[in-house]
Design goal:
With 756 residues, the chain is an alpha+beta fold. Among the domains are: 183 residues, Orthogonal Bundle (Penicillin binding protein transpeptidase fold); 213 residues, 3-Layer(aba) Sandwich (Beta-lactamase); 104 residues, Beta-lactamase. The chain is 43% helix and 10% strand. Strands 2-1-3-9-10 form a 5-stranded mixed β-sheet. β4 and β5 form a beta hairpin.
Amino acid sequence: MRKIVPTEWKRKIRHWMLDFDARIDSTLFSTGKGLRELYERYSTFMDRFYVGRWKRWVFIEPLSEAATIGLGGLILMLALAIPAFRETADDDWLKKSDLAVTFLDRYGNPIGSRGIKHNDSIPLEDFPDNLIKATLATEDRRFYDHFGIDIAGTARALVTNAQAGGVRQGGSSITQQLAKNLFLSNERTIERKVNEAFLAIWLETRLTKNEILKLYLDRAYMGGGTFGVDGAAHFYFNKSVRDVNLAEAAMLAGLFKAPTKFAPHINLPAARARANVVLDNLVDAGFMTEGQVFGARRNPATAVDRRDENSPNYYLDWAFDEMRRLVDTFPKSYTERVFVVRTAIDMNVQRAAEDAIENQLRQFGRDYHATQAATVVSDLDGGIRAMVGGRDYGASQFNRATDAYRQPGSSFKPYVYSTALMNGFTPNSIVVDGPVCIGNWCPQNYGHSYSGAVTLTQAITRSINVVPVKLSIALGGKSPNPAKVGRAKIVEVARRFGIKAPLPDTPSLPIGADEVTVIEHAVAYATFPNKGKSVTPHSVLEVRTGAGDLVWRWDRDGPKPRQAIPASVASDMVGMMSHVVSEGTARRAAMDGIPTAGKTGTTNAYRDAWFVGYTGNFTCAVWYGNDDYSPTNRMTGGSLPAQTWHDIMVAAHQGVEVKDIAGYPAAGKPAAPTPATMAANGVPKAPDIKPGPPPVLTKRGADILVQVEKMLDDAAKTAGDPAKPVKPVSSTSVPFPDSFAAATPGNAATPAPRKN
């Protein structure tokens, strides 16, 4: 093998490799020597600039540190600016907010509008001079002098707020406020303020000062569902912004700070007080003299009385958000920004829902210590017929029907029972109502008692808590952690119904400890009368351009119903849930001649009270509670929520052909009584409906009524009146509800962890 390569070749290869190695060594040596000489020359050159002693520490070191810190600051600013500049990635950023929508009800009648009609906006030079001055004096006096961020104004606001111990002045410039309106939300976070600052500088580099001011006057929210000062002038004073006087201009300029608080159609005294502050600002800024504003002080503006106008503002806000998402799905080549939208709202049902909630809260809210409510009425294809997001839109624009997450309590249990029916259980399956624990958590029933062996129908009718928990364990089968596996199945089924809330895995999930929204809960229940098909909540039925051209239609372009659960399971659930209304916890929701089913819900410490139910035509969810999560006064889902639901649905079914529900017993007749509602002698128990406010009549009060009755009888006999006196209603003539006795001293029951 060694003779394969000739000896001469071996010698040449060896010499070549030695030569290559020598060249590498020589190159490295020469390079190192050259770098050494270059460094020495650089050091010799830099020695000429050496500064020592005090000059080094006074000049050189501070400059060096400043350069280092400045470089780090620039890198940090770049990192912070990237999220802000992503908001401007859309080439159409200037038109993102100029969507103008006129809304119609389902019958084609106008009900309101949202957005800004940018192509019809008034030129800046046509705005009154006193309005421009009032805005600048109040919002940003140095607007034409700063670069987007008013450093002096921000510092002044920080000092003033620190001295006052709270927020007294805002430090945002008009450019920053415009950046927030165009790109950001109203959340109060440091991240939002940082993004706002960078976007303000970015706007200043692309728009002139007059363009920024014009956009600000057109895009700002001015209360009452209006955007821009021209829309506000029409809404509050019934005139164009071109024609407003100084007093009206001051009132409009005062709305920028808090349009809800200072809206003149809601709180005229507060609006006038704010306008007076604006007039003070005009004088302080030197834009006007005291003599020029004296007339406006003596004759303040008066807004048009719009108390009788009942615009469905919660619904319109939600519909406008849906419309903005829908427009984003249109092709990029589609440039139309003005639309006419026909919605699913029925104004008769909407007014009935608003009146029902207001009447109940006005009559019983103080007794029950309940201050807020929300409701959603939907038809069975997901079209929202009515929405009430709170008691007073003028006082709070927060939509409790779409944005508030509250515990549903036992109204969540139908998802648990549906899961059980899909996994081999039947309405007549027997489950023992007895003690059960998952870890250190042991659910309790209302009343802290157990019923023994019950069917699933009896369990949902009586809203037993233990049974859903036991079902969640049984659904897990023989897995190592059956409760966890069972809860995962329940969450999966709830997702099929349309529940998009987070639903974190907790042991108490089967009895409604996780939070949902009213609108999701209401439309999810439509799956039962829809024979197992879930639908998507929506307000938009039809979208047309301002010229009348059809752009989008729900029945053609919207998502189609999905089969969430088998039709047989939905039918069984209808039969089970009908008992809740006919003989269970929601008897106040029953309507004559209309098949009805649903479920009540009450949460820990009575913080939330629900009733969610449906007919063959509509589904509706009603929630009562408090914004601060404070407990109510023992309000249950079968009290005000069920009564409110009844009042709303009676109005909703006026003039409507009542439809049957697949699975409802006896074609709409009340379900036969179950053993849960039978007395010991086999006679059905009388319905225990508890009308009105929380029971406060004590045993002593009942005895007094009996004594009054006897006194009236004796007085009638003494007077010799031949006519038989009419006896007043007393405790002997009409049985008092059980809760009257519970309200007596010594008999008060301890609230259960979770109830019906």
